[in-house]
């Protein structure tokens, strides 16, 4: 299987015609298996104005195995762990849901959609999910505080990239 | 456990004991079994089957020289025994020095008092056993050991105290032994057939010709009983253990068979349930047809051998695998896949690329494999996927397993399937609540889209955690 070839194709598609509010690059030019994505907080969401670093790791078995997506930037969100790992719970990435026909473009768009519309019924952060459901004002305030604190200025991947690489297994829980 | 002794048989024979060197430090004794060599000129008898053991004792299967214990000459019992015990019977004084021999005592049971005296007298000699008989001319088995006949001072407690084996033979047999004992006494010239014995063996005058009694005794003692007891316990334990494991094994086999049946019937999809990755056997993959890709929208309807529209399905209404329409002519000699479409077909599924590698198919050039759901791929792409990764179509997740196919079911799979079924059951129950309390939401099930294509079913988070735990490599 020409895994490299397919990744290169997808990378070309994503860079020439990037999805809305995203810029995509390789973490390291010689390795197509790790992507760095900078996502602009969707304008109509509480994350507007922030810039979020997202790391996409493609396993060597890709596309037979799902990519691993983590947030390098701290974010206050029911479906993203509120820690330095930034694990994200995305239905399309679950092993039992992943299909080789799924594209990274669709994955990234799903991530963006999750910022616009969190899924509190399937939370990684139960407390934030409850707050989102019951005290939306409080949630919005907290989320915006996080944006101000963590998602302003240049996006940094390095520190959290190392953390994510050190604990890749934790992604399987979502 | 009660010790039990059985005297199976008494064998009497006549021995010639030659002791010419008694004065030497190590007396040499020559023992000749005359009965064994010349049964025609000697006495012998066997008593078996009608012997009653009175005082059971463990004793080796050897015998001894037969004699009658001495009662004190002035004892009343000696007087009373006279009619039954001839004066010439072998007494202790009529035997060779008993350092070298064991003895068997013979006495009539005249009365309990006299029997007691015989037993006391017998215990002063190295005897193996004491044989009683009731002088009643009976050939029947003597009464049972617990019978009042054998009471001394109103009880049979003596039986437990006796230092040696005591048993009774029928009256007739005892009387006969007593008579023979009176014959084989005295010196070698006085015994029956003394002439013949003298001619054959030329014994010395100081030699003895005496009756030897062999005993065939079998004992099941306390020790043996304990062993039997242990053996029974061990046997029972083994039976319980093997029975339990057999039952468990059978139960496991039963559950495997049940799961297998449900897999074959289609009720359970091992892979869609996340129980186990299943791959398609390569021989099955090879059966999926190969075609040359052809896609010529401008020539719609130009190809007469075009497959019916049903062949091309939209990925969204995929669900079930369906055999591609038979097109025998095409399949036999490297069939041509007529990718040409009517406008409807183009709209639903042109499939211009292989969704695994994202390469475009080249019209009239690329060889593609069509799998039962109707989706097409490069053979090298789809073969590896179905053969090594998953049995589900990469596009529509329809199962590509042959009908009634089931991989080897393991106990582990049975456990996982059971766990998932149980979790589903609890989920259904919990989902019944319109608005679960907050605490339940935090710790209980949280809903999630499900593995199925359309995400129609909701799963608890717990289940997802379970799945990732039971199926880490997924
Ligand atoms: Zn391909
Ligand atoms: Zn399909």
From TrEMBL, chain A:
MF (Gene Ontology): ATP binding; ubiquitin conjugating enzyme activity
Domain UBC core: 2-152
Annotated EC: 2.3.2.23
Top EC class, one word: transferase
Highest taxon, organism lineage: Eukaryota
SMART domains, per the entry: UBCc
Keyword Transmembrane helix among UniProt keywords: no
Record-linked Pfam families: UQ_con
Gene3D superfamilies: Ubiquitin Conjugating Enzyme
InterPro entries: Ub_conjugating_enzyme, UBC, UBQ-conjugating_enzyme/RWD
Keywords per UniProt: ATP-binding, Nucleotide-binding, Transferase, Ubl conjugation pathway
Protein name per Swiss-Prot or TrEMBL: E2 ubiquitin-conjugating enzyme
Provenance organism: Immersiella caudata
UniProtKB/TrEMBL annotation, chain B:
Species, as recorded: Immersiella caudata
Region listing for Disordered, in residue ranges: 296-345, 427-455
Segments traversing the membrane: 226-251
Annotated keywords: Membrane, Metal-binding, Transmembrane, Transmembrane helix, Zinc, Zinc-finger
InterPro entries per record: RING-H2_zinc_finger, Znf_RING, Znf_RING/FYVE/PHD
Domain of life: Eukaryota
GO MF annotations in UniProt: zinc ion binding
Domain RING-type residue range list: 354-397
Alphabetized PANTHER family for the sequence: OS06G0192800 PROTEIN, RING FINGER DOMAIN-CONTAINING
Protein's recorded name: RING-type domain-containing protein
Lineage: Eukaryota, Fungi, Dikarya, Ascomycota, Pezizomycotina
Pfam families: zf-RING_2 (PF13639)
